[in-house]
# Entry
Amino acid sequence: IFSDLGDEVVPMFSNLLIKDNRRVVSKAREWLAFQTIDGEPVPSYKIHYFLKIPIIIYMVIVSIPMLPLLAGCYIVLFLYGCGGPVSCIGLALWRILQRDYGSNDGDITKANLAPALDVFYCLILCQGAFLIVSSRQDYKIPKKWGYIWLVDYYFYSRAKCWRDPASIQGSTMSRYAVDLIDSDSWDDQLSGVTMLATFIRQGADVRCLLLPSKSRIQKLIDTLGWRATASREMREAAACIVAHLAGDIHLAQFPGAIRSPAIAAAIAGDLEPWCISTLLEDETLLAYWSNCDQQQEFPHLRSGSRSTMHTLIRVTEKIMPEFRHVVQKPTSSGCNELILQGLTILERLASDHHNCMDISSTPGLLSKILAPLCSSTLIRGINNSSTWADVVNGTFKVLCSLIRCPGSTGESLRREISANQQAISNLKSILDRSNGAGQELQMRAMEIVTELALDSSTNTTEETKENLMNQQLEIFLLDKESDAISEKLQTTAGRTLALLTANTKPNSSRVNDSFGRLTKLLDAKNNIKIRIAAVQIMENMCVHCDLDKGRVKDTLLPQVLAGIQSDKRGARQRDQNESSDEGNDEQAATKELQGGLLSLTLVIYDKLISPDDFEDAVEKKGLGNGELFVKKLKTILKENCKETITSLRIVKLCGQIATSMMSRNKYTEQFKNQGFVDSLSEAKKIMSNLESCILFAETDIQLKKIAAPLLSELEKEVLLLVG
# Structure
């Protein structure tokens, strides 16, 4: 509606007003920057306060006499720029309420004019409603500080469209924020990183916008080393973004991330030799640098006002204090936020073992990470301060990633921790649930102690391992509702217990006492992650312990067969939804459970019960004479003919179960009738490339287990047994 008027009037007036107001404010800022108070330069944070004087003078001398003209210009600007949809809604609503469409004067051709206009205005109202709702959902910008960003994005899009209308195709606020990072303006960079950090905190994934540009990532990493007081907000936002990207960053490509050769820049005071490690500095050192900053000049912090709308918002804040909370930008949350973000960055970087080596070799960094664990005041601190507990939890997460690093890096760190008596004492105290430590800390401590116990070079005693397994088993078997234990802690206890029992024989009496309760955890009503841990623990017990074969046949095996059989519905649902192969955590967990149940079945059949006992259990579960069980194995095999690690493991387990049964003269005819060999041959063709890649897995123990036996060997053995 307002396009014709806007195309001619708005660009000229808007550019004139923006340039004029920006020039006035910039001149005022420059003048104030060279003034002194008691012989000292005016601090940068006071410049904005003194700006209100020239702004008021400018408004009195220039704006008030031109008020009628300015009012008309701003009305046009509002209607054309951001009020068009609102104006359309208002006009449509007004016309529907008035319904003054005139008379048709008996003209038959105008008989449908009024109904048509009603429909037309209703469609405009619906369009306006959809526009408002969709805009709010698309941007998801909180009201507290979103208006300034929306104004910036509005001017950016308007100018870009004015130069080239086709250039705004695919334009989004996230792309706009990324472009601001490349700017030389301090204000633009601050707006860009703050916007991106906000989008990340809301769950947005911006990695595809940043990872292709090495220079942008390097710029963000360099920002972490800035020590200026005024750059605190920039550092916090940049740390959030780097933490988001850290899992995909290889430190070797960014020499300034952990260890920087740019010592000259560090001496100049702009950067630190280690950008990320500066986030772990204590508040005392930060305070020292803050005092130094007050004596330094930062010209990039004295840039002019970004736009007339910014000035208008700031003036409105002064006139209407109640408006301040609406446009207020997020404030800095202090040193603790920087420390937590730094620990998050290190944790995600440590997912790559090459990064682990760089982190461990950085002078002084590892000692900072270990400091809370080795502190004599650790337990007292986490009980008295939730902030301290958060920092300790962050350092524990980093340690969990570092001690799992293969090779000498992880081994030396494990030895260093195990040799520190204070560290071991603190870990044991945290695992003691009576001391008040949070469950998050208990989970991390449990993971660290488990890794220490699994390393033979730490010389962990059998008594210590047994006590640890008893603690883990006790937590794993607790009732979540009555014992107020989180599901995550219970799952962690089960997972770490499964790791320990795979390498250490548990106490036989303890196993017999907990056998029934562990078996009940296999029930489908329990959380799937708990069921996975329970399956792994039971398999380890079947391998290492002398279990009562009668209890295994009557109690454990029926639960295992029920779990395999009940997957029929889940498999059918996955077939109906082929949008992703293990595309979410639930599907991946379901397949992991399926593989665990098949592995436990193989162990039970090979080591604990006779073929006749197994056949008896199969018949009791309603699987007939084995025909349905063999058919189920073939179905599972065909469903998992996909190039994924989990599917390869499941296919090999199905083949191993088949060979084990037929070698003991069971179900040979059923496997032959079901065409099991043909299905296995088809799976071998599909998975041959993946299987050959796994042969090069040097450090991953789980992948080594999957590597053997080869599918070709299983195929030959099954073919030979079938005849």
